[in-house]
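During the reporting period, we have paired protein sequences with backbone structure tokens. One record among many follows, to show the layout:
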Amino acid sequence: MPNIKIFSGSSHRELSHKIADRLGMELGKVVTKKFSNQETCVEIGESVRGEDVYIVQSGCGEINDNLMELLIMINACKIASASRVTAVIPCFPYARQDKKDKVGSRAPISAKLVANMLSVSGADHIITMDLHASQIQGFFDIPVDNLYAEPAVLKWIKENITEWKTCTIVSPDAGGAKRVTSIADRLNVDFALIHKERKRANEVDRMVLVGDVTDRVAILVDDMADTCGTICHAADKLISAGATKVYAILTHGIFSGPAISRINNACFEAVVVTNTIPQEEKMKTCPKIQVIDISMILAEAIRRTHNGESVSYLFSHVPL
């Protein structure tokens, strides 16, 4: 494709390579390094004048360093006369800090701050996946394409779970009900949800199951799992409510802190995540983790954006 350059930040090079391979391109030359005082330095190694530039950087690992690196890369391309700079952010950082709580009214809305930083650095367009709250799109004054892992998830369920026609799709909290009902409708199966009461962040107190999972396969679906306290509690709840097997399908597998040991000790058949965040190291210590590749969805979104085509086809189809 002419007049297009794809650069990779250091957060998830493997995904960037898959996207470039899918588009039949090489990744652009870029050197990212740190000075001894830990300042980030980025050098774009080829001309971007008049080009349509895509920078792939996910919100994972050293989140703050990676976010800063992305901002510097966007700015470097912008002041080197790139015609348009698109940030491809498979997992949007700080997406959970998207509103003030009822309790602590002095909480920051960091997702809005990140949106402002991206805009000020010079981004013209954002491509991301399964935002924690879709309203984050409204934090930007530039176009945001929020892609969905749902078509890839439906494909995985049909190919890998033999009893999918009689399963129940379960949301581990009330916030994910919309996501779960959408998948349940597309599969034409029942759904259930678990109501949880939190005392403190990252700690779950009491859980109540709403719906029936007796003698059925239960599939927990959520947009992200961090310390995995919620989904592991939910899995125990489902087994005690009579589910025969429990799967978990998550778009962003952050898996920080005690997550891996919790998954290993929990009663999951499999914990399925997409590769918006690198999972190779975690898969070595946790055999239950399986990965759905979503690089073709991002690659197709880049191709369609570059060619000025509609992206909405990807909301309901997996590109072949």
User: Anything to note?
Assistant: Residues 138 and 144 are 9 Å apart (CA to CA). The radius of gyration is 20 Å. The longest strand covers residues 190-200. DSSP finds nine helices and 14 strands in the chain.
